UniProtKB/TrEMBL annotation:
InterPro entries: Aldolase_TIM, Alpha-hydoxy_acid_DH_FMN, FMN-dep_DH, FMN_HAD, FMN_hydac_DH_AS
Residues annotated as domain FMN hydroxy acid dehydrogenase: 1-343
Cofactor(s) listed: FMN
Pfam family, one: FMN_dh
Name of the featured protein: 4-hydroxymandelate oxidase
Sorted UniProt keywords: Flavoprotein, FMN, Oxidoreductase
Family membership: Belongs to the FMN-dependent alpha-hydroxy acid dehydrogenase family.
Keyword Manganese annotated: no
Source species of the chain: Actinoplanes italicus
Active site: H240 (proton acceptor)
Keyword hit for Flavoprotein: yes
Length: 343
């Protein structure tokens, strides 16, 4: 499903925009490894369980129709004029959470997302201001991304001298002029972000908001354990879709160790390479409570706006229910008990 969708998006988008979204860091080793790792995971189905699939679940306190949420993706208006609003509407239709990106191209107030993602700006006043705006806009959780101390070199963007298209800005940051059109994305990101964030900063943030916090970009079980001790409610096992450390471990391979480290003290989400209902069940079987979807929704948005994104989410749920049925699972909890093998 997503290969055809990706091809359709590629045909429609300007080459540099396609490259920015599809590409990864460096030689794109981790980008490729994310898919290869998923495809090595075989499921061991159960039989005679009498179960009927119902994938509804709850992540970060939010009820949803399936264990899938929309990953934060910056600058969605590059792909469709309705950008973040279109994908948020599709998520609402599908009954799953939309995570608005700090670098989103519509404001928190316009989107009123379920969850809001933050990076670490050097200016902590700005960060706190964004937290308060998210709270006022009714967000029910924060997702704090910690795998971008600096933005990785992405060869395609260097080659294309990639800059944001006219009219696309980091809308949440624009009124005080912190993000400008025309500069390369990497230049303005590295000016904005704090490269030296530490656990003390997480403590600082934890003490300043009552919202649940998910820490996104955790791959080492020791960091996962430390995050739980610091009071986070979930960790997101992610290598940023292969866009940060090239050579980072595939998220799927890191997942069992992270689950073991946090036990059931925290929820564990996963992203980076999820492309189908089968992948969702693979992630559950390896220890995830749920997954985030990134690029497939960018392609769907590019091709068909809200309807396109809603269609992809419907197909994903149909596939998920089929895989649950074929593995003898009724619920997300059943899928978490499935055994896996290598193939
Ligand atoms: C074009 C693009 C922009 C992204 N922007 C952000 C962002 O602003 N914040 C963030 O935490 N992650 C961002 N990500 C990473 C996604 O949240 C997610 O980790 C990744 O897309 C998952 O991998 P997948 O695309 O293979 O599903 C971005 C990913 C893409 C492809």
């Amino acid at each position: 499903m997503t290969d055809e969708l990706a091809e359709a998006a590629k045909a429609r988008l300007p080459r540099a925009v396609w490259d920015f979204a599809a590409g990864g860091a460096g030689a794109e080793r981790t980008l490729a490894a994310n898919r290869a790792a998923f495809d090595r995971v075989a499921l061991v189905p159960r039989v005679l369980t009498g179960s009927v699939p119902d994938p509804a679940t709850r992540l970060l306190g939010t009820g949803m129709t399936m264990p899938v949420a929309v990953a934060p993706v910056a600058y969605l208006r590059m792909y469709h004029p309705d950008g973040d609003l279109a994908v948020a509407a599709a998520a609402r239709r599908a009954g799953i959470p939309f995570t608005a990106a700090m670098l989103g191209s519509h404001t928190i107030e316009e989107i009123r997302p379920d969850w809001f993602q933050l990076y670490w700006p050097r200016d902590r006043g700005l960060m706190l201001d964004l937290v308060r705006r998210a709270e006022r806009a009714g967000c029910s959780a924060l997702m704090v991304t910690v795998d971008m101390p600096v933005m990785a070199r992405r060869d395609r963007d260097v080659r294309n001298r990639f800059t944001l298209p006219d009219g696309v800005t980091a809308a949440n940051l624009v009124p005080d002029g912190r993000a400008r059109e025309g500069s390369t994305v990497v230049a303005h990101t590295n000016t904005l972000f704090d490269p030296a964030v530490s656990w003390a900063d997480l403590d600082w943030l934890r003490s300043r908001t009552a919202l649940p916090i998910a820490l996104k970009g955790v791959l080492d079980p020791r960091d996962a354990a430390r995050a739980v001790a610091a009071g986070v409610d979930a960790v997101v096992v992610s290598n940023h879709g292969g866009r940060q450390l090239d050579g980072a471990v595939p998220a799927v391979d890191a997942l069992p160790g992270v689950r073991e480290a946090v036990g059931e003290h925290s929820q564990v989400l996963l992203d980076s390479g999820v492309r189908s209902g089968l992948d969702v069940v693979r992630a559950l079987a390896l220890g995830a409570d749920g997954v985030l979807i990134g690029r497939p929704l960018v392609w769907a948005l590019s091709v068909g706006g809200t309807d396109g994104a809603a269609h992809v989410l419907r197909s994903l749920r149909d596939e998920l229910c089929e895989v649950l049925a074929l593995t003898g699972c009724g619920t997300v909890g059943d899928a978490r008990e499935l055994a896996t093998a290598r193939m």
